[in-house]
Amino acid sequence: MLTVRAILKDNAVTFLEKFDLPAGTKQSILVTFLDKNITEFGDLSQQDLLKMVDNLHFSLSDQEIAVLRLARQGMTNKQIADELELGSGTVRNYLSSVYEKLKVSNRTSAIAKAIEHGLLE
């Protein structure tokens, strides 16, 4: 069983560790909240919490999320590279990594799946 430490603040769960779960694997996860006074999740439903835990297996990096957010705005790889001060090849590599992690084959599907799973605001 995998134990993950988290903090609940303003109805948002922040996980304190980043880790990779191999795609397609099933593993029990115990989420331990550091604030022992938590007796309820306020407006955060159990379903929302389970969705957040389910999203852990995607494990997109902060940079991959940044690239995906800009792609969502309709930017080209070149525009994303300029905005983030990266090379175009680096942006392409980040997007390829995102496609692999999300099990999709293109930008539109990656954005749709990221939105569906709450990875993009």
Task: Give a brief rundown of this model.
44% of the residues lie in helices and 14% in strands. It contains 5 helices and 3 strands.
Structure commentary:
The chain has helices spanning 46-54, 62-72, 77-84, 88-102, 107-116, and strands spanning 2-9, 12-15, 29-33. The protein starts with a strand and ends in a 5-residue tail after the last helix. The protein has a 3-stranded mixed sheet with strand order 2-1-3, covered by helices on one side. The protein has 5 helices and 3 strands; from the N terminus they run βββααααα. The model has no long low-confidence stretch (mean pLDDT 77). It has 2 domains: 2-57, no CATH class; 62-116, Orthogonal Bundle (Arc Repressor Mutant, subunit A). Helix 4 (88-102) packs across helix 5. Strand 1 (2-9) and strand 2 (12-15) form a beta hairpin. By secondary structure, it is of the alpha+beta class. 12% of the residues are buried.
> Roughly what fraction of the amino acids lie in strands?
5-15%
Percent helix, as a range, is 40-55%
Broad shape: elongated
Radius of gyration: 16 Å
Sheet of most strands: 3 strands, mixed
Mean pLDDT: 77
Low-confidence stretches: none
Number of helices: 5
